[in-house]
Hints:
With 177 residues, the protein is of the alpha/beta class. The chain is built from five helices and seven strands; from the N terminus they run βαβββαβαβαβα. Strands 1, 2, 3, 4, 5, 6 and 7 form a seven-stranded mixed β-sheet that branches. The longest helix is centred in the middle third of the chain and has 16 residues, at 100-115. The model has no long low-confidence stretch (mean pLDDT 89).
Amino acid sequence: MSATVRVEKKKICLLGTFAVGKTSLVQRFVHNRFGEKYLTTIGVDISQKRMPPMQSGGRLIQYHFLIWDIAGMDRFDSVVRNYYRGAAGALAVADLTRLDTAASLDIICRNFHSVCPKADLIFIGNKADISRTGTRIPMELQEISTAFGGRCLSTSAKNGQGVTEAFRALAQAFGEA
């Protein structure tokens, strides 16, 4: 007898300042591709991806992610609030080559949690392929992830390192709730 797979749709957001690699992470995860040309996201870009089934609490669940790639915005206004509304979780992305982007995640994640207080967060240090720290997560990003109770991972959208694992970690966090 085969197990029944329950499909759950989850809205997830990618958070972070401009040019940290949010769009590249989505493109790598959804389409397994990387574009060298930088394209600024204007507003929000929505993609979908179905995760492979996974065991969670004795059940087999398959998550269908609705991925909201949100532009790096300086203001937290009603438009941004509406983008966040209904999200089950987020990947909070910093650029490992620009440590100031890690510090900015604190206020971005506070704003996100003011709209979605129960949402899970996974913190990403992206661009590990060109960072002087390599795959080592800088202390600033570790501290912010600890403050929010989230995991912290390094990725490279360019070569794919850790990208699927980051989205899988978010799916696992949903199963732990």
